[in-house]
Amino acid sequence: MKHIAVIGAGTMGNGIAHTFAQKGFKVNLIDISEAALEKGVNTIAKNLDRMVAKEKITAADKEATLHNISKITDLAKGVSNADLVVEAATENIDLKLKIFKQLDESSPKNAILATNTSSISITKIAAATERPEAVIGMHFMNPVPIMKLVEVIRGYNTSDDVTNTVMELSKQLGKTPTEVNDYPGFVANRILMPMINEAIETLYNGVAGVVEIDTVMKLGMAHPMGPLQLADFIGLDVCLSILHVMYDGFKNPKYAPCPLLVNMVQAGKFGVKSGEGFYDYANSRKAEVVSAQFS
User: Fold this and answer.
1) Which of 57, 94, 168, 207 could form a cystine bridge with 61, CB 3.0-4.6 A?
2) Residue of 151, 197, 241, 276 with catalytic role
3) Which fold has domain 3-181?
4) Catalytic: 151?
5) What does pTM read for this prediction?
6) Consecutive 10-residue runs of the chain (295 residues): their mean pLDDT?
7) pLDDT number for residue 146
8) Is residue 118 annotated as part of the catalytic site, yes or no?
């Protein structure tokens, strides 16, 4: 594989593009918004600058990585020569089905079509194409250039050859691929999201405050980040969307989102990306607790 197309220039998309480009792949970063593409590539450049400053890569490595990335607003053009397409658009089933129908029509017939979805059925996404055997989940973790895991999700019809190719490709990226089957939330979010939701319930019920809950989990359970801060980092809107998918898939009340989470998302409190969630990020990405909101 030489040519990779990445759909979506947001946090996950630009991270995936960065990771492939740094390993020498030619990457078409595709987004309908030129501003989003510019912002995405600028983010990649800033992250590469940090790596140069820490002497993890050279300035020449940075320039080579950026040289490997092309910004494209036309999806059909961007995927026309792709060996692998990785979709990293918004976690919305209707949008993903529309994109995969377009990918099936515009990409080479031997191209593998992957989605970075964190919860939506691979089998359902694959059904929008005429090549369900070539559709697979590649769930990267955020921040993509740093986190080692790639959750590789087989749909009902995903072939062994496609699965093996994606597993080996993930290793080429310096990642640790882990194969899982296609059930709501897969493994990562099936375990993580109920924990985050329970932490929000604990806050909602007045058992403890934001800092106290996160401190217990960091110091008592050796988690590098508390569940409320992690929810802010993931995006509270994303957490809510994943919980909805899991609740709809399992019909089990343990996956029903906490009313506090629902209210915060409705109020536009999404976490880091909106500047406020359980913590205040108005001045920087460093968390400052929002104490008044939960008192």
Assistant:
1) 57
2) 151
3) Rossmann fold (3.40.50)
4) yes
5) 0.90
6) 96 97 98 97 97 97 98 98 96 95 98 96 98 98 95 98 98 98 96 98 98 98 96 95 94 96 98 95 67 42
7) 95
8) yes
Name the nearest CA neighbour of 231 among 203, 207, 208, 205. 203
For position 283, what pLDDT does the model report? 74
Contact 57, 85 (CB under 8 A): no
Would residue 139 show up in a list of annotated catalytic residues for this protein?
yes
Q: What pLDDT does residue 282 have?
A: 84
For domain 189-294, the CATH superfamily is: N-(1-d-carboxylethyl)-l-norvaline Dehydrogenase; domain 2 (1.10.1040.10)
Residue 257 gets which letter from DSSP? P
182 torsion bin: left (phi>0), alpha (psi -120 to 50), beta (else): beta
Q: Which of 107, 118, 119, 241 is catalytic?
A: 118
Identify whether 143 is preceded by a cis peptide bond (ω within 30 of 0): yes
Are the beta carbons of 151 and 123 closer than 8 angstroms?
no
Boundaries of every domain in the chain = 3-181, 189-294
